[in-house]
Amino acid sequence: xxxxxxxxxxxxxxxxxxxxxxxxxxxxxxxxxxxxxxxxxxxxxxxxxxxxxxxxxxxxxxxxxxxxxxxxxxxxxxxxxxxxxxxxxxxxxxxxxxxxxxxxxxxxxxxxxxxxxxxxxxxxxxxxxxxxxxxxxxxxxxxxxxxxxxxxxxxxxxxxxxxxxxxxxxxxxxxxxxxxxxxxxxxxxxxxxxxxxxxxxxxxxxxxxxxxxxxxxxxxxxxxxxxxxxxxxxxxxxxxxxxxxxxxxxxxxxxxxxxxxxxxxxxxxxxxxxxxxxxxxxxxxxxxxxxxxxxx
Amino acid sequence: xxxxxxxxxxxxxxxxxxxxxxxxxxxxxxxxxxxxxxxxxxxxxxxxxxxxxxxxxxxxxxxxxxxxxxxxxxxxxxxxxxxxxxxxxxxxxxxxxxxxxxxxxxxxxxxxxxxxxxxxxxxxxxxxxxxxxxxxxxxxxxxxxxxxxxxxxxxxxxxxxxxxxxxxxxxxxxxxxxxxxxxxxxxxxxxxxxxxxxxxxxxxxxxxxxxxxxxxxxxxxxxxxxxxxxxxxxxxxxxxxxxxxxxxxxxxxxxxxxxxxxxxxxxxxxxxxxxxxxxxxxx
Amino acid sequence: xxxxxxxxxxxxxxxxxxxxxxxxxxxxxxxxxxxxxxxxxxxxxxxxxxxxxxxxxxxxxxxxxxxxxxxxxxxxxxxxxxxxxxxxxxxxxxxxxxxxxxxxxxxxxxxxxxxxxxxxxxxxxxxxxxxxxxxxxxxxxxxxxxxxxxxxxxxxxxxxxxxxxxxxxxxxxxxxxxxxxxxxxxxxxxxxxxxxxxxxxxxxxxxxxxxxxxxxxxxxxxxxxxxxxxxxxxxxxxxxxxxxxxxxxxxxxxxxxxxxxxxxxxxxxxxxxxxxxxxxxxxxxxxxxxxxxxxxxxxxxxxxxxxxxxxxxxxxxxxxxxxxxxxxxxxxxxxxxxxxxxxxxxxxxxxxxxxxxxxxxxxxxxxxxxxxxxxxxxxxxxxxxxxxxxxxxxxxxxxxxxxxxxxxxxxxxxxxxxxxxxxxxxxxxxxxxxxxxxx
Lengths: 296, 283, 439
What we know:
The complex is a heterotrimer of chains A (296), B (283) and C (439). With 296 residues, chain A is mainly alpha-helical. Chain A has helices at 2-34, 53-60, 63-93, 100-112, 115-125, 132-139, 151-179, 183-191, 196-223, 228-232, 245-255, 260-284; strands at 37-38, 48-49. The relative contact order of chain A is 0.13. Chain B is an all-alpha fold and 283 residues long. The two termini of chain B are 37 Å apart. The model of chain B is unreliable at 62-67 (pLDDT under 50). Chains A and B meet through helix 1, helix 4, helix 5, helix 7 and helix 9 of A and helix 1, helix 4, helix 5, helix 6 and helix 7 of B.
C-alpha cells in the first residue's frame, strides 16, 4: 500500500513541479547570473561582465532605489495593516444587518476589478480641477488637493487606492471564517452571560486570528509587488513620492530601455528581502499549522 | 436601554452606508462616464447624473475631433482574456488540486515541497518577465495563449495549492479509509468522497484564479504583442499617457474589461465564502 | 468525378494563390499618429489592392519597450512602426536602411517623392542616425502657445490689465512677460479674472517634464552660443557643443526658476500631464496653454474657433518628431510592401492630406507653402517661424536613462524635496556623465 501511495503521491504533484521547474529555475538562474553583467538592450545588447558592480551602485549611488524602498515600506506599514483591520471590522459589522447578502456581494466587487481599470477610475476621481473628490472637499470649504502632484497626498492617494482594492479581500477571508465558527460555542458563551462585544472579543476574534494573520501575510507579499496602480496613475511621481520598488524595477528593466543587468540586481534584492520578511513573519506569527507546513 | 440600542443600530447603518459609498462610487463614476457625452466628462461642478445619455463611447463615431473607435476594437482582447482566463482557471485548479491532495494525504515531499511551492508566490513578476520572454521566444510561443496560460498558472497556483492543502487537511482521513475498507482504490476514493467535500474550496480557488488571470497586466504586456493574444488590460494600458485621453471611450473600455469577471465573481461568491477558510474552521 | 476534383483543386489553388499574393502589413504606432495612419492606410489600399494594412495604436510607454524587445529578440512581430525622435539612437538597431533598400530595389522608388522637399532639420533628425537612413519623417510636431484670443482682445479686460500693471495686455513673448499675464488671469490674485488660472503647465514626473524644461532653458541655450557652442542635432540643446550637460550652469538654474515663477498661476502643475492641461484649456479654466499642434482641433471644437489664438512659444519651442520605419527583421516580400507604404505615407499628397484633415504638422516645405493649407489652418505662419527656432532633445541611445534621471531631479527640485541650487544641477550632470561614460 505504501509504495502505491508514494508513487501516486509523486505522480500527482508532478505536473505542478514540472511547470515550476521549467518556468522558474531558468528565470531564477538567469536573473542571478545577468545581475553580474552590464546588459542593456538599448545599447545593442552585448553583455559585459562587471562583477558585483550593479549591487555596489544600488547601495551607494542609487538614491532612487532607496526612495523606492521608502515608499514600499509606507505601503507595508500603513496600507496593509489598515486593510487588514478594516476588512476584519467590516466582517463583524455587517453581520445580522438587513440585506446582509446584498451588502456582502457589493463589498466583494472591488477586488474583482482589474487593477488597470481601478487605476482609470481613481485617476478621474482624483483629478485636481474637476474630480468629484475635490468637489466634495470644496463643499466643506477645504481647498482643492493635488492628489497626483503633491508629495504627501500622492502617497495618500496610492494608499487609498490600495485599501479600496484589497480590503474586500481581507473582508472575504474574515467573513468566511466567521461563517464557520460553530454556533454552539457562541451560544455557550451567551448562556454564560456574555454580551455581543464579549463574544466577539473572547470567542470569535481568537478563533479568527490565524485567518486574519494569513490574510495579513498574503497582502504583505502582494504589496511588495505593487505596480499596476502606480503605472496607471502617478507614474511614481511627483519626484519619487510614489515610486514603489517593483515600479522602479519596471522602469529600469523595461520602460526606460531594458537595462536588464541592473534590473536583475534589483530583483534579486527584492526577492531576498521578501523571503526573509515572509519567513520571519511565519515564524513569529506561528503560521506553520495554518499553511499546512507543520510536520505531523 | 432600548434607546441606546437603536442609536447604535442607526449608527451602524450610517457607517455601513458610508463604507458602501466609498467602495461603490468609483464604479458608479466609471459607469456614468461611459455613457456621458464628451462635454460632460469633466465639468465643474462634476455631473453626478448624466444629463444626456449617449452610446457614442461604445459604438464610436463621435464626429469632430475624437474619431472614437468603437468598442468593437476590444473584441479580440475580450476573446483572449476569456480563453486565457477560463483555461488558466481550469488548468491551474486541477494541477494545484492534484498537488494539494498529494501533499495533504500522502505528505509528499514533506514541508520542503509545500514550502517551495508557496514561496513561488514571492516571485515578483517583474523579474521573471525578461527571462520568460527569452524562454518563450526560443520555443516560438511568443504572442500565444499558451504562453499566457502557463505563466498565469505559475502565478495563481501557489495560492491555490496552499488553500487546497489546508482544505484537504480538514477532511478527515477516516472517510478515505472507510472507502478503502470498502474496496475502493485511492483514485475512486478521491472522486467519490474527497472531491465532493472539497468542492467549495476548489470552486473558490478556480474563481480566484480567474480573477487574477483576467486582471494580470505585466506578463501579458511583455509576452504578447498583437491582438492575436493580448488581453483586456493591455487594451486599456495603451491609454495611460495623457495623449488625448478620451475619458468616455476609456471608461467604456474599462466597463467592458471588468463586467464579465465581476458578474462571474458575484455569481460564484457563495463558493468564495465557503472555500476560503484556510482550514481554520471546521466544516 | 475526376474532372470535378481537378476543377476544385484548381479553384482552391487560385484562391490560395490570391491569398498568397496578398501581403498583409502590421503597422504599430503611437496614438498621436493613429488617425492619420488609418486614413493613409485606406487610401493606400485603394491603390494597392494586393496589400492589406492594419494600423494599431499603442501608447508610447508600451510601444517603445515593445519595439526594443522585438529588436533584441529579432522577432519581426510588426512590419512598420513609428519612432519618437529622441529614441533614434536606440531604435536604429531594428530599422531597415532605406538608402540601401532603394539601391537594391530601384523599381519601387517613386520619382516624385522628392526628399529635398522635407524641412532640412526634420529630414535629418527623423531620418538619419550614424550615417544610416533609418526612417522617413512623418509628423513634424512642435509646441505652440494657445491663448484665449477673445479675452486678450476684449477692451474691458485690456483696460483692467493696464490699470493693474501699467502696460498693455499683449500675448507674452518671453516667460518673464508671461508671469504678469498669468497672474492677471488667476482668480486667486485677481478676483475679477475671467478665468480661474492664468496658464496650464504640465510638469509631471514623466517624459513631459523633459521637454517642458527645454521651453525655458532653450532661450538661454540659444542666446549664449559663445558659452555653450552650437547645437548638435544628435545631442540636442541639453548638451554643449563638446557633449557636456549644458544645464550644469547658472542658466540651467534660471530656467528652473522661471518655471517655478509661473507655477502659482497654474492648476496643479506637478500633477498634470498632457491630457489634463488640454482639458483645462478646452473647458475654459485657463487663459494660456503651451501645447503641441494636435490639440488645436479639440480646442476649436470645445471653445469655438474665434476664441482660440495661436502664438509663438515664449522662450523657445521644442521639436517632437515621429518617423516611420521598416522593421529590419521581416521577410523581403514584406519589406517591399512596407517600403511602398512608407513612401506613400510621406508623399506630398499624404502630408497635405494629413495636415488638412488631422492637423498633423507637416514635414514638407511644399505643404507649408500651399495656399490651401493656409486657408484651412491659420497656424501656418506661426509654424514656419517655430520650426526655424525650436530646440531639440538628445537622440543618443542613452537618452531614456538620461531623461529619467533628469525628470526625477527636476521634479524633486520643483517639488521642494531637493534644493533648487547649482549644486543639485551639478549632481545631476555628474550622474549624466556617469551614464555616458559607462559605455
